[in-house]
Design goal:
Length: 151
């Protein structure tokens, strides 16, 4: 089957029109639900650094600078720790990273469940995409989040 230029142009117009229209299909409630999901995620992830800092402060034999140095080399994976890391540092890093991973996983679980049961995965993904590419959607979501943070 050969498609003519006119048919291809029509198909492209319909496709682009459907995609453009989908961003406009978000209700204020949809955008608010998306903002709530981001706030829930932020609530969990914002507590990770203070938690790690408190673990470092409580642990003799390692300080924040050394932990940052180890983390920079490891990039979240204990297997990537530098050769000069002591057994204690490797064990401590592995323990801390395990806690960080649990918290990140918890944040992901919260996002997945809220997305599934409040917006639906399809609409969540569409708003997430629009948030990254549509300045008006981003402004609405960010404004809602700022308002929730102030409360």
């Amino acid at each position: 089957m050969r498609l003519t230029k006119a048919v291809l142009a029509t198909l492209m117009f319909v496709f682009v029109g459907v995609n453009a229209a989908s961003a406009q299909d978000f209700t204020d409630e949809d955008v608010k639900d998306y903002a709530v999901i981001l706030m829930a995620q932020k609530s969990i992830t914002d507590k990770i650094s203070p938690y790690v800092n408190s673990l470092i402060e409580k642990q003799e034999g390692i300080d924040g600078n050394r932990y940052v140095e180890l983390d920079k080399a490891a990039k979240g994976k204990a297997a990537n720790l530098p050769a000069d890391a002591t057994d204690f540092e490797k064990q401590f890093y592995t323990t801390v990273q395990g806690q960080v991973d649990k918290r990140k996983k918890a944040a992901g679980t919260v996002v997945n469940n809220l997305a599934r049961y409040s917006l639906g995965v399809k609409k969540y993904n569409a708003i997430k995409k629009a948030y990254k590419s549509d300045s008006s959607i981003k402004a609405k979501v960010d404004g809602l989040m700022a308002g929730m943070s102030a409360e």
